[in-house]
Amino acid sequence: MKDGITMEVMSNAKNNTAYLKRKKYNIWPYLFLLPFFALYTAFFAYPTLYSFYISLTDWDGVAGINKMKFVGLANYIRLFTRDTLFYKSLFNTLLFMVLYIPVVIFGGLVLAVLLYKLKSNRRLFQTLNVLPYITTPAAIGVIFAFMFDWSTGIINKILVASGLVQEGINWLGIGSTARFVVILMLIWKNFGYYLIIYLAGLSTIPEELTEAALVDGANERQIFFKITTPYLRPITQFLIITSITGGLQLFDEPMVLFGGSGGGPFLIGGPDRSCLTGMIYFYDRAFKSTTFLGYGAAITYGIFIFIVLLSFISSRLLYREEER
């Protein structure tokens, strides 16, 4: 019996030794992962950590001339307690999201249902709706700046020619109308994206469900609200979360619309800062009107905290409704 135990111990020792040798020399997975982690560290992890360190300093970004002065949380205290423009930029961004996200989600769903039933020319209408989404934001800002120009814009010319107004409206010079133009621009740009996502979701709904509902006497409205909408609920939740995170990073379109190329000599963020977003405010404080890179970095982390909180709250509300 002792010999059997000894043989079993020796066999286990050999197996363990062979396993350790294989494990010791099996470095190929790590070699394949190394380029990804090296690039991730160089272009994401290190810049993120370094920008956080910059947010704790008083620095204008001029390396070699002005030294960084460590100030701790002073930038954050100033940002959250005394900076009214920061809160105004967040309010403007939230206002844009509240007004344009429901329109593109519900409108994209309705149009997707209509196009899904269209057998001919479906691809043509899909392409026409997706073209604005793949257009560069700078080009979209320039187009809307010229369309809504006070003196030469085509919108004012149409309104005056039709007799709806006596003289052209200063769309980009008044805070309320400037916000309307930005919201309209966001709807026009993003509508095609939501349409395509919902069209993909509609293709996953079993046709047997709608056919059975029609046999039972359900009309189109009942099928839409009782079958289509609940079945596409996960897609809607995904679109809401991504729209919130993306909307809080809004920068290109309002910046081009009011920062040049036909936008006119406005304050950055439009008249009365009515279209000032968080990212535009960061750009203005860090690089344009002032060069306080440390405070600008603090603004980006303030926006990041706000994105995390808002995304967490919205996701909890959405999934709580689903559990009910």
Can you walk me through this structure?
By secondary structure, the protein is mainly alpha-helical. The chain has helices spanning 2-25, 28-55, 74-81, 84-117, 122-134, 137-147, 154-161, 175-202, 207-215, 220-231, 233-247, 252-259, 278-288, 293-323, and strands at 57-58, 69-70. Strands 1-2 form a two-stranded antiparallel sheet. Helix 3 (74-81) crosses helix 14 (293-323) and helix 13 (278-288) packs antiparallel against helix 14. The protein starts with a helix and ends with a helix. The relative contact order is 0.12.
Summarize the structure.
By secondary structure, the chain is mostly helical. The chain has helices spanning 2-25, 28-55, 74-81, 84-117, 122-134, 137-147, 154-161, 175-202, 207-215, 220-231, 233-247, 252-259, 278-288, 293-323, and strands spanning 57-58, 69-70.
**Main beta sheet strand tally, sense and closure:** 2 strands, antiparallel
Shape: globular
Number of strands: 2
Distance N terminus to C terminus?
A: 64 Å
The helicity comes to: over 70%
Poorly predicted regions: 260-265
> Treating each run of at least 4 consecutive H or I residues as one helix, how many helices?
14
Query: What percent of residues are in strands?
Result: under 5%
Instruction: Give me the strand/helix succession.
Output: HHEEHHHHHHHHHHHH
- Return Rg in Å: 28 Å
Strand order, biggest sheet?
Answer: 1-2
Overall average residue pLDDT: 83
Structural class: mainly alpha
